Amino acid sequence: MKQKLDFDNQKKKGSKSSQEISEHFISDFTLDLELVRKKIGHNSDVNFREFHIGGTGVCAAVIFVDGLSDKELIEKHIMKSLMVSFSEKYNQESPFVKGDISKEFIKNQILSISELTEVHDLNDLVSKVLTGSTALLVDGVPNVLILGTTKGKSRNIEEPVSEVLVRGPRIGFTETLSDNTALLRQHGDNRDLSIINFQVGLRTKKELVIAYIQDIADPNLVEEVKDRIKKINIDDVPESGYVEQLIEDNYLSPFTQVQSTERPDRVYSALTEGRVAILLDGTPFALIVPVTFSMLLHSPEDYYERWLPTSLLRLLRYFAAFISLFGPSLYISFVSFHQGLIPTKLALSIMGTREGVPFPAIIEALIMEVAIEIFREAGLRSPKPIGPTIGIVGGLVIGEAAVQAGIVSPFMVIVMALTAISSFAIPQYSAGITLRMLRFVAMFFAAIYGLYGVVLFFLFVCSHLVKLKSFGVSYIGPIVPYRVSDWKNFMVRIPLMMKKRRP
Hints:
Keywords: Membrane, Transmembrane, Transmembrane helix. By secondary structure, the chain is α+β, with helices and mostly antiparallel strands. It has three domains: 21-147, no CATH class; 177-291, no CATH class; 305-489, no CATH class. 47% of the residues lie in helices and 12% in strands. It has 16 helices and twelve strands. Strands 1-2-4-5-3 form a five-stranded antiparallel β-sheet, with helices on both faces. A five-stranded antiparallel β-sheet has the order 6-7-9-10-8, sandwiched between helices. The longest helix has 30 residues, at 307-336. The chain is elongated. The chain starts with a helix and ends in a 29-residue tail after the last strand.
């Protein structure tokens, strides 16, 4: 067993060292091309096209990946330029001598490609070719030219599905990183908007950028974000959710410490407040840091409408969050322990509806809560045409059948329906998931200690939130630390002309 473990460790060390060893080109066309063939020639989608530069007889080759590279661009601006246009531009008065084709002549007068770099290492060439670029090898020319011919598959810019607004921009991020950064630039001429590029993933490398406004964002915050991104140690980062989990402060906390969004207007608004955005290639969800809990209950539409209706709607969201978290637990505590606190007529009505129900309030609530979560997940994962049907069948037919069978009381159905609807009123889906999860814990506290258990659970949550931070910022600011000026945009939204300072 020990020998087997040692052998596995040696294999891991060997594979790691083989990836780190750099192989340089030796400026010999035949040997360099053979080196590339041994490295990636076994892939059926990698094309090797050898030809002679027009009028010289010099050997050259282009290497590209079928489907990722733009063939039309390769044919018109690379191969045609070298095979046809070269002989027209090259100096025909002096006899051609093999090897006297200068690299600068090819770069500056022949190739009409905007993105052009040089590499002298095999691993760099492989990385560029496998992401859509084209490698050009020319006999007698040192190094290899990498030409930007990437032809990515992208969808059209559409309205975000997860953050729908009545009033506001109808554009959302896409899976193409260059499109997403362009959407940020399109907000206006802001020379202080900085976009810094990184690469994440050990085996599958992906582009990641952080965006911030130089004279607004705290330099310490920017450096902290950079350090955490540089410490990401994982083979592949398929979605920004991986980045979110790897850079958050406390992975044991049920509360999300990084805000995700599909809306460019939300991201740019956060940048103007001094926050930092993180965008990853291959996903439409951008990340915003640092985040406070109040941000998860705010909507971009709060600033597109007048302040009075917006303030009322924001207060309604806070109330919906409270109902979503404590609605079932308050029902359990009042019905099971504190019937005397319920008005007499209402208490008689509740007891009348519970007549014949064989389960205590906690079991009754768990049955309904688990059923609602199953219906919600089934409707979310089902094909789009039948998703609403599942919700209707689950909410109406099964709920009515449960009441008729005497398994749950009609009043419990009302409480659970109000709780489920309240969770949908929260703008951020991740915040809704957190409250739904903590709702079960609150229900057990209420079943054991009654109303005192609900208060005890609330104190536990508050103590956790007081200690929780997001990139050094208090998660429940401006409550802790107390800042009077930031309350202008906390639970209500004051008129825009009264907002003079950033949070």
